[in-house]
Specification:
Elements (H helix, E strand, L loop, with lengths): L2 H35 L14 E6 L4 H12 L3 E7 L3 H7 L11 E4 L2 E5 L3 H10 L5 E4 L18 E6 L5 E7 L3
Parallel strand pairs: 1-2, 4-5
Antiparallel strand pairs: 1-3, 3-4, 5-6, 6-7
Bound molecules: copper (II) ion (CU).
Copper (II) ion binds next to helix 2.
Length: about 180
């Protein structure tokens, strides 16, 4: 083996080592940023308007309580916490499009908030004084505020709906 080949080999191993270091660093920083991003308690939106909400939920719903803790950390106040087994009737009363149904239904400043809607999206809608009727995170995607299970984060969208029952995507969380 000549000198040229030997130096070539060592260069190869230096590159391999470099790649390994880059990989380790990127994995570490990825997981660090994932932890920070998964923290729904960090506020990205400020809001100083009406913060009192009425919440309807089934007495047996524990993730509903976890969502309430989330919005309370963002300054919202629970004026009324109504525990009822008639959630279907509540959703109909507030004209929630049935395909958007989740667990709890909250009313704030005349808007309907269905399911595990992130507090910052609520604030953004309230600030817009929008013609929309409300926001929903249909079903209960794992990873949404109040639905955190380990590090599982299902992509989800916050859907806005108007009084005619027309839907539009208000916000999307693909990786968070
Ligand atoms: Cu829930």
């Amino acid at each position: 083996m000549n000198k040229f080949l030997a130096s070539g080999m060592s260069k190869f191993w230096r590159v391999v080592l470099g790649i390994m270091i880059i990989t380790v660093v990127s994995i570490t920083s990825n997981s660090a940023s994932a932890i920070a991003a998964s923290s729904w308690d960090n506020e990205t939106e400020s809001y100083s308007g009406k913060q009192e909400m009425i919440v309807y939920r089934s007495p047996s719903c524990s993730c509903c309580g976890d969502w309430l803790d989330h919005v309370k950390k963002h300054g919202f106040k629970i004026k009324q916490d109504v525990k009822t087994d008639e959630m279907e009737a509540i959703k109909q009363k507030y004209n929630l499009p049935s395909e958007l149904a989740s667990c709890h239904t909250a009313i704030i400043d005349g808007y309907v908030m269905e399911g595990h809607v992130p507090a910052d999206d609520i604030k953004r809608l309230l600030k817009q004084k929008s013609q929309l009727a409300g926001l929903a995170v249909p079903a209960m995607p794992v990873g949404t505020p109040g639905m955190e299970i380990g590090n599982t984060k299902e992509p989800f969208s916050v859907i806005a709906f108007n009084k005619k029952g027309e839907l539009q995507v208000f916000n999307s969380y693909e990786s968070y």
